[in-house]
Amino acid sequence: MAERPVADRPLADRRTIELTVNGRDRSADVFAHHTLLDVLREDLGLTGTKECCLVGECGACTVIVDGRSVDACLVLGVEADGSTITTVEGLANPDGPSPLQLAFLETGAAQCGFCIPGQLVSAHALLGDVPHPTREQVEEGLAGNLCRCAGYEQIIEAVLAAAGSAGRPLGAADLRSTPAMDDRSATPDAGVAPQ
Ligand code: FES
Ligand code: FES
């Protein structure tokens, strides 16, 4: 029997995946062909992670998966099954914005704001690895995040300021200190994360 043309095959191939997102266990019944970006935005309602180029060029969709910063548009949701994920909604401290978020506000890093969630996540990952980076290390760490408003100077200034003002290394504990933020999934763009 001849195989059905691709166009006639059902797209409703769904799988159940389990994720830990911003410190909270989540389960989602997702389309097998959907990206992690689709899953975060459409299935979990976490629209702080932005959708833009969809080919790994702009960094707007940056999230942290098992400790590594990745472009969520390049990962299938089913590939992320079992992963621990931090999105921009999970970056704040339980009692308010993190030093990094405050630094973005104080330097005026957000102009139109569209790239800022990805910039924040990349910067958070960088400071987790290199608590007191040089300017060159910040530039390299954020090289995958494009800003169409060309607000690079303020963004770099914000990351350097946060590294100096944090008073202690931002490390694994900070990456884990996200459960309280998960309650913000109903308002995923709270704080400095724009729509
Ligand atoms: S939307 Fe994923 S890198 Fe641009
Ligand atoms: S602030 Fe507008 S794209 Fe970066």
Describe the structure.
With 195 residues, the chain is an alpha+beta fold. It has 2 domains: 17-87, Ubiquitin-like (UB roll) (Roll); 99-177, [2Fe-2S]-binding domain (DNA polymerase, domain 1, Orthogonal Bundle), CATH 1.10.150.120. 31% of the residues lie in helices and 14% in strands. It has helices at 36-43, 99-107, 116-129, 135-141, 152-165, 172-176, 179-182; strands at 14-21, 24-31, 62-65, 68-71, 84-86. It has a 5-stranded mixed sheet, with helices on both faces. The radius of gyration is 17 Å and the shape is globular. It starts with 13 loop residues before the first strand and ends in a 13-residue tail after the last helix. One FE2/S2 (inorganic) cluster (FES) binds at residues 51-54, 56-61, 71, 73.
